[in-house]
Amino acid sequence: MNYGSLAAAVWNVQAGYDTINSYYHFTIPGSFSSFATGSNSTFSLGSNVNVTGRWAFQVDSGVRGCQYYYTPVQLGDVFWSDSNCTQKCTCSTSGIFCITELCSFSETCVPTNFQFLCFNVSVVVPPVTTTFDPPVITSAEPPVITTTSAPPVIINSTLPDSLYPIYGTASSRSDDGSSPLIHLQSPFVYFGKTYYTIYVNHNGHLTFSAPFGSFSPQRFPIYGSRDIIAPFWTDLDNSQTGSVLFNQYTSGSVLQQATQDINSYFPNLNFSAEWVFVATWYEVAYFPATGTKTTFQAVLISGGQKSFVLMNYGSIATAGSNVQAGYDTTNSYYHFTIPGSFSSSATGSNSTFSLGSNVNVTGRWAFQVDSGVRGCQFNDTPVQLGDFFWSDSNCTQKCTCTTSGIHCVTELCSFSETCVATNIQFLCLNGNIN
């Protein structure tokens, strides 16, 4: 980088280089200071190769550094670990090394992307944003001091405990779009089928064989031709705000967390997670209300022939359209609908998804999805064990699939319900639900 005459400027200048996830980066001294421009510019008067105004770097490779809160820190980087700038940390060849050291009298402790730095008060520090590509967020965890690399992270301690760490690749900004084809690093067994690829669809669902752009949710069971995992199927729009992120793990603390969670929710399996896939819709808006923010996850976990899905919910904005949450399979041999789907309690501060659970962890719903028990047949159509429905257009006969077959009793809809035709049967639905 060669510098000639630099006119004085009143705004900040950054000089150096950066890489994806900032695994490697360098800032030329004087950046974001009053010494960046003018006749005394550090850039034009200084050098790292003894040639005034020239800075030279080898950029074909680099030495990996450390991790701090799962974020890569380059060897030699200096930062403060707390909001009061009392602990000054350095990435060394043996890991993160911290000592007690405060900012100098003229400096101010300022948050940056994932850490804190001491800046001279005369320097204008830009506000921290999360609009870079890919944007990455995670809930706070104790720092890991190591020399191995990890995906980038921005700490956000306000995220609920139900969410897994959020980092990885950002999908494109596109309404009703999908991620590219994602090749799974480990096969995922979904009710007897083994999948090696997946798509993260922007409208709140995952599909395996092809992308799926549908923004209009359908009630499960669909009795269709698609395997689908839908933590929050509705009309979402990440084209302007919010992020759709995905990442895979084959080692590290996320696998440890998944192993612990699954053994807690499904005891006596002696399960060990070998692979985890996390898809997150972070602060994504409803279409066309770009000011709304909704956060949720689908977490796929596998080990051996066992596989599981976690659906984790953060803040859910109020929506005026329907939401389907759960999963469905080809011909709906196996399906599940999270309570609150297609109701007014799906969204908002009282969302059943974010306040409820089937594993006693608020905002988390867990399912074993490698296999399932076959149920019954009604009019030559599979009905899952436990499903109930009405068999006639007047909803006078309520039927349930039991281990001994279809069992029907005389039962009418309640006063506030209406008899509605669905794919193969009839259901009593509340009259104020679309």
Tally of individual helices = 3
Please tell me the total number of domains.
4
User: Rg to the nearest angstrom?
Assistant: 27 Å
Q: Which stretches of 5+ consecutive residues score pLDDT under 50?
A: 121-157
Average pLDDT reading:
84
Percent of residues in β-strands: 25-35%
* Separation of the first and last Cα atoms: 62 Å
Note the main sheet: 7 strands, antiparallel
Give the tally of β-strands: 29
How would you describe the shape? elongated
Structural class: mainly beta
Amount of helix: under 10%
Domain NIDO: 231-372
GO biological process, one term: cell-matrix adhesion
Organism: Oryzias melastigma (Marine medaka)
Pfam families: NIDO
Topology, pairings included?
Elements: E1 16-18, E2 25-27, H1 42-45, E3 66-68, E4 71-73, E5 78-80, E6 87-92, E7 95-100, E8 107-111, E9 116-120, E10 169-170, E11 182-190, E12 193-201, E13 205-207, E14 228-233, E15 236-237, E16 243-249, H2 253-265, E17 275-286, E18 294-303, E19 306-313, E20 324-328, E21 335-337, H3 352-355, E22 364-368, E23 376-378, E24 381-383, E25 388-390, E26 397-402, E27 405-410, E28 417-421, E29 426-430
What does this structure look like?
One of its GO terms (biological process) is cell-matrix adhesion. The chain has four domains: 1-62, no CATH class; 63-158, no CATH class; 169-368, no CATH class; 382-430, no CATH class. The longest helix is centred in the middle third of the chain and has 13 residues, at 253-265. Residues 121-157 have low confidence and may be disordered. The N and C termini lie far apart (62 Å). The chain is mainly β and 434 residues long. Helices cover 5% and strands 34% of the residues.
